[in-house]
Amino acid sequence: MFLYANEVFSSYYREPTEEKLITLLFTLNHLRDWITGGEGWDRINEIPENKRSAEQLFYQRIYDLPEYKKVVNPLCNGLKHCKIELQTEEIAGLRCGIGRAGDSLGQKYYLIDGKDSRTIFHTVLEEYRKWFDKIP
């Protein structure tokens, strides 16, 4: 699942589409559930922090990441329940302040509360990468 998220992100970075945006939101939101074997916060929260497994601690660490907690999680859940409270915007054409080296003149951007969604996804993916890099 993590490798798939990286493949989608790599493609999204170069050529963002709505489909890839939604795929990344759902994958990054639910990957932490996969890591804990489906244990939700209600179950994990019952366990004293000093007795939680590494997976359970990671579940909380991802949730506490601002890009996850304030963007990925609420936007994913908002899409599921047709109630999006974050400001989203699609713009086309290279923009000063958003554009990066390698972006085309006709680059498409998906902004979430004024931020390039690629930056948000990259931050969350890097946190997941730290987890998966530890696995032999």
What do these coordinates show?
This protein is mostly helical. The protein has one domain. Helices cover about 60% and strands about 10% of the residues. The chain is built from 6 helices and 3 strands; from the N terminus they run H-H-H-H-H-E-E-E-H. The protein has a 3-stranded antiparallel sheet with strand order 1-2-3. Strand 2 (about 110) and strand 3 form a beta hairpin. Helix 2 (about 20-35) crosses helix 5 (about 65-80), helix 2 runs parallel beside helix 6 (about 115-135) and helix 5 packs across helix 6. The longest helix is centred in the N-terminal third of the chain and has 18 residues, at about 20-35. It is globular, with a radius of gyration of 16 Å.
Supply the key terms.
single chain; 136 residues; mainly alpha; three-stranded antiparallel sheet; 6 helices; globular
Low-confidence stretches: none
Instruction: Name the beta content range.
Output: 5-15%
Gyration radius, to the nearest Å?
16 Å
Helix content: 55-70%
Q: How many strands? A: 3
Tell me the domain tally. 1
The averaged pLDDT comes out at 89
Strand count, sense and barrel status of the largest sheet are: 3 strands, antiparallel
Report the end-to-end length measured between terminal Cα atoms.
16 Å
Q: Number of helical runs?
A: 6
Which of globular, elongated, flat, extended, rod-shaped describes the shape?
Answer: globular
- What structural category characterises the helix and strand content? mainly alpha
SSE pattern, N- to C-terminal: HHHHHEEEH
